[in-house]
Design brief:
The radius of gyration is 28 Å and the shape is elongated. Helix 1 packs across helix 11 and helix 5 runs parallel beside helix 9. Helices cover 39% and strands 22% of the residues. The strands form 3 sheets. The protein has an 8-stranded mixed β-sheet with strand order 1-5-6-11-10-9-7-8. The protein starts with 17 loop residues before the first helix and ends with a helix. It is an alpha/beta fold and 409 residues long. The chain is built from 14 helices and 15 strands. It folds into 2 domains: 241 residues, 2-Layer Sandwich (BirA Bifunctional Protein, domain 2); 81 residues, Anticodon-binding domain (Rossmann fold, 3-Layer(aba) Sandwich), CATH 3.40.50.800. It binds one RNA strand of 77 nucleotides through helix 3, strand 6, strand 10, strand 11 and helix 11. Keywords: Aminoacyl-tRNA synthetase, ATP-binding, Cytoplasm, Ligase, Nucleotide-binding, Protein biosynthesis. One of its GO terms (cellular component) is cytoplasm. GO terms for molecular function: ATP binding; histidine-tRNA ligase activity.
Length: 409
RNA sequence: GCGAUCGUAGCUCAGUUGGUUAGAGCGCCGGUUUGUGGUACCGGAGGUCGGGGGUUCGAGACCCCUCGAUCGCCCCA
């Protein structure tokens, strides 16, 4: 017999276990609770879509589309793609499922996303996000509500300390276009002194030069044209309404005028909740307004705003969420008592208390295993003088609950 | 796609300038001790030192290749 080689897990996937899985679940549970407080409706979305859903909405030239998508042809020869984000699929559903009748529509979801990237701290090829969107709402109050929900979520997760909300506006389409043109002219003039990466960005996405980490670029970034110089009156009013709304709601924020979005469909509000506790991955939650998206999918002009947050990143910030110890350890110190112990195990669980059975390995060491498990209370079964001897090690209240539960059964 | 660091038992790690039969702790299994008890002791299973090639009398250690992981760049949650 030749040795069978164990298949390795796929790069960038995670097997989340134990305390990590508890932290993950805590993030999702907290999100579910908070989104109900804000009356966001739950949606479940397909994990894959036609490739064009993402290709059109994200823009063909973006890195996500050009090199980071998990795309494949199905048996009918159609190109499908594992979703790299939620927004495009939700926008597609809004158009194909008649959700326009519910506008303004507030929806929330969570689940796995896929991007073919190099894994590193807080970045995976299959990762998980929570997501919230408001579709069909043009007013800045929608942005404010979304940000308030994000702020409350982070507070209820207990990760708000050290996380700051960075806020910017990209203006409307006109503002953004003229800003972009000014940036292009400005950086073009000093092209030779920019980093190689930024010279490349000049062609593809000049806005991105603004958040370059290269010191050679940062000198020029400081004096680069600011979006504020190009905002139309409407865009300025919109941003003013968002910031005053946040102030009224008591949500702390900082203006970061170099904050831009990688994807083309963003307009007006852009924001990120940022921490310095996750290495190179500072963004814990990010989003913005994407008024241009629906049209790129062939739909009517539809204002929308949303955000998403990486569950793994949030889970890494969450502290003090571990696995619970059992309420009871049920110990079989003599195999002849297995039946009795099994009955007790069921009775305890039916009474709403958690219990774990210790009935394997050396009988003499089972009690020690139960003690080491950290269970709050222990009930053990042994044979003494031909009869079953039950011993309870518990606080008075717990012991009484146990005896009650056993009588009920 | 690029760069840096790192791969020794199930886990966390020792392993000297290259030198006998590769070790410890934890965990697991068995035994002795204890018996409202988290104790102590004894024993056992478990390793092609990530894989391949090279240098050398001799490689876990040095060199090359390869695979994998981690962190960073690009980009992004």
């Amino acid at each position: 017999m030749s040795k069978v080689e164990t298949p390795r897990p796929i790069r960038g996937t995670q097997d989340i276990f134990g305390p990590d899985a508890e932290a993950f679940a805590f993030v999702v549970e907290t999100f579910e609770r908070v989104r109900k407080l804000y009356r966001f409706r739950r949606v479940e979305m397909p994990v894959f879509e036609k490739t064009e859903v993402f290709a059109r909405s994200l823009g063909e030239t973006t890195d996500v589309v050009s090199k980071e998508m998990y795309s494949f042809d199905d048996r009918g020869g159609e190109s499908l793609t594992l979703r790299p984000e939620f927004t495009a699929g939700i926008a597609r559903a809004y158009l194909t499922d008649g959700w326009q009748q519910y506008a303004p529509l507030k929806v929330a979801t969570h689940g796995p996303l896929f991007r073919y990237e190099r894994p590193q701290k807080g970045r995976y090829r299959q990762f998980h996000q929570i997501d919230a969107e408001i579709i069909g709402a043009a007013e800045p109050q929608a942005d404010v509500e979304l940000l308030c929900m994000a702020d409350q979520l982070l507070k209820e997760l207990g990760v708000a300390d050290g996380v700051t909300l960075q806020l910017n506006t990209l203006g409307d389409a006109d503002s953004r276009d003229s800003w972009r043109a000014a940036l292009l002219a400005y950086f073009q003039a000093v092209r030779g002194e920019l980093s190689e990466d930024s010279q490349d960005r000049l062609e593809r996405n000049p806005l991105r030069i603004l958040d370059s980490k290269d010191p050679r670029d940062q000198a020029f970034v400081a004096d680069a044209p600011k979006i504020d110089e190009f905002l139309t009156a409407e865009a300025e009013d919109f941003f003013g309404a968002v910031t005053s709304g946040l102030d009224a709601a008591g949500v702390k924020w900082q203006r970061l005028d170099k904050l831009v979005r990688g994807l083309d469909y963003y307009r007006h509000t852009a924001f990120e909740f940022i921490t310095d506790r996750l290495g190179a991955q500072g963004t814990v939650l990010g989003g913005g307004r994407y008024d241009g998206l629906m049209e790129s999918l062939g739909g009517p002009a539809t204002p929308a705003v949303g955000w998403a947050a990486g569950i793994e990143r949030l889970a890494m910030l969450v502290e003090g969420v571990g696995e619970d110890v059992a309420d009871w350890a049920v110990v079989v110190e003599d195999d002849a008592t297995l039946g009795e112990a099994t009955g007790a195990l069921g009775a305890i669980r039916r009474a709403g208390m958690s219990a774990e059975l210790f009935a394997t390995g050396s009988p003499r060491k089972r009690f020690d295993k139960a003690v080491k498990s950290g269970a709050r209370s222990i009930v053990s079964y042994a044979m003494r003088d031909g009869t079953i001897d039950r011993r309870i090690k518990a606080g008075d209240a717990d012991g009484i609950r146990l005896v009650g539960a056993l009588k009920e059964s």
